[in-house]
């Protein structure tokens, strides 16, 4: 290794973290994430499950199991008794709504994170990986500026919901650090890669006849309706099993290298040049959306697919979103 390699790596790291971009993508992700948080909370409240799932069995009117003291915030508030849980649920709902509308900036993002995490961490039997995706994203939006545009904060400061500095025809461009969006992309790719390699078991391989998805479709815990008919479509479920595993375990690693190749496109190398010429991100998005639509139609796994699809917004650079919005706006004006 060259003695100058660490210096070169450090300079590249600094350059990557110093990049800035329009806040449009992060603002769109904030709105989508806020809607997912509201959906997650409402799915508990509207079904009358608040006390059953999140209050301790020791209290009168409590839930079905002993939950202990909860995390540090829940313990500080007095533990998972009904009054505390109901109050914190109301606070979390209000914060999630304000977060979605873009009120309060980073403080509201932090309040949403703390209140939501205190609730969903109470009962491990009613939580899932989707809650980690939600709370990790909320933390990154505490660090990033997600209310610079498409927010009531922006409307109060500029008189417009869309900040004038995000338009391509303005000289005073509004920019924010790009690294929070990069970390959100990395979180998405990490989630897929980890779940893909965790699936490396008998049913996901040729030794198990690629029967994993067929078996999932027969499990009444997850399926939305009777799917015994998939016995007639077993070869289709085998292909879907193979595609799902390759998408989760292999494609995210290729996409990560694709981002690296584009960031270092000035360097030599045939593989790098070949990757730069291909729009791998588009294939990743198309396959991923198809996969999650399939999950939403056939399986009930909570808000997992919704929060995953929200992360897909971060794959779209701000100038692409702004160009698409401009085309739609021009089309409406012509009509």
UniProtKB/TrEMBL annotation:
<feature type="transmembrane region" description="Helical">
    <location>
        <begin position="232"/>
        <end position="259"/>
    </location>
</feature>
<keyword id="KW-0472">Membrane</keyword>
<keyword id="KW-1133">Transmembrane helix</keyword>
<protein>
    <submittedName>
        <fullName>HTTM domain protein</fullName>
    </submittedName>
</protein>
<dbReference type="Pfam" id="PF05090">
    <property type="entry name" value="HTTM"/>
</dbReference>
<feature type="transmembrane region" description="Helical">
    <location>
        <begin position="172"/>
        <end position="194"/>
    </location>
</feature>
<dbReference type="GO" id="GO:0012505">
    <property type="term" value="C:endomembrane system"/>
</dbReference>
<feature type="transmembrane region" description="Helical">
    <location>
        <begin position="280"/>
        <end position="297"/>
    </location>
</feature>
<dbReference type="InterPro" id="IPR011020">
    <property type="entry name" value="HTTM-like"/>
</dbReference>
<keyword id="KW-0812">Transmembrane</keyword>
<feature type="transmembrane region" description="Helical">
    <location>
        <begin position="96"/>
        <end position="120"/>
    </location>
</feature>
<feature type="transmembrane region" description="Helical">
    <location>
        <begin position="132"/>
        <end position="152"/>
    </location>
</feature>
<dbReference type="InterPro" id="IPR053934">
    <property type="entry name" value="HTTM_dom"/>
</dbReference>
<feature type="transmembrane region" description="Helical">
    <location>
        <begin position="27"/>
        <end position="50"/>
    </location>
</feature>
<feature type="transmembrane region" description="Helical">
    <location>
        <begin position="70"/>
        <end position="89"/>
    </location>
</feature>
<feature type="domain" description="HTTM-like">
    <location>
        <begin position="18"/>
        <end position="320"/>
    </location>
</feature>
